[in-house]
Amino acid sequence: MPKKIRELKGMLRRAGWNQIPGGKGSHTKWAHRKVRRRVILSGNDGDDARRKQERDIEDAVREAAEAD
Predict the structure, then answer these.
(1) DSSP state for residue 17 in the 8-state scheme
(2) What is the pLDDT of residues 20-58, one digit of tens each?
(3) Nearest CA-CA partner of 35 in 52, 12, 54
(4) Domain extents in the chain
(5) What is the spatial distance between Cα 57 and Cα 20, in angstroms, rounded to a whole number?
(6) Which of 6, 35, 46, 49 is the most buried (most CB within 10 A)?
């Protein structure tokens, strides 16, 4: 069963990512103080996440853990 977008946002927050202004519509931008790249997450909180989004967020969480 796919995760919800709100679960992916929670994963990012717990890994130290912060939502930053600048997303359009249902897109949100995320930044981490020790990771150079930004993460863009699309979808509303109650939407099912696509598998690619789940992989991207898992990679971002892993990258943040390695940077700390």
Answers:
(1) -
(2) 998 899 999 999 999 999 999 999 999 999 999 999 999
(3) 12
(4) 5-67
(5) 16
(6) 49
